[in-house]
Amino acid sequence: MNCFIINMTSNKEIIIASDSNELARIGAAIFISNAKKAVKKKGRFVTALSGGATPIMIFKLFAKEKDHSEMPWPDTHLFWVDERSVPEKDPASNYGSAFKTFIDAVQIPPEHVHQISVDLPPEMCALKYEQDLIDFFHLGKGEAPVFDLILYSI
Predict the structure, then answer these.
(1) Is the overall model pTM greater than 0.85, yes or no?
(2) Count: domains in the chain
(3) Inter-CA distances, 80 with 15, 20, 43, 84, Å
(4) Nearest-5° Cα angle at 101, 67 to 61
(5) Opening angle at CA 66, ends 63 and 67, nearest 5
(6) In whole angstroms, what is the distance from residue 78 CA to residue 111 CA?
(7) Residue 43, Cβ neighbours under 10 Å: how many?
(8) Is 10 exposed, middle or buried (0-12, 13-18, 19+ CB in 10 A)?
(9) What would the pLDDT profile of 62-96 be if each residue is shown by its tens digit?
(10) For the domain that residue 139 is a member of, what is the CATH number?
(11) Which domain holds residue 117?
């Protein structure tokens, strides 16, 4: 089974992998490469993560010392593409899954992990997260955040 990555950060190339393990290794390498470039250029790397099987495979690579030692975790900020309105200990939680898979294993400052709140009604959580994005990116009216990399799974 062929899997693919669309790498929009360099030359918008489509990368085809022979299996999901190879896809995860390629995805992790792209992630780390973009992180290093962003930190060198701007002093920080800002990414948004999604849930799903492919990101989890990449996250598992990050949890292994040899696979995350080159990653500039202290200068990395994690946001989420989406979240289910469930507690972080629920298996359906994207944040909870990322936390137990790799966040707890790497040297990322807790204040750099921008979790979507799930303790209010969904509409209130969305408004709170929107405000978190506005504050972090210093957005004006009508402006949208610009991430260094968005890891999205379909």
Answers:
(1) yes
(2) 1
(3) 24, 22, 21, 11
(4) 20
(5) 55
(6) 10
(7) 9
(8) exposed
(9) 888 665 678 999 999 999 988 888 888 898 888 99
(10) 3.40.50.1360
(11) 3-151
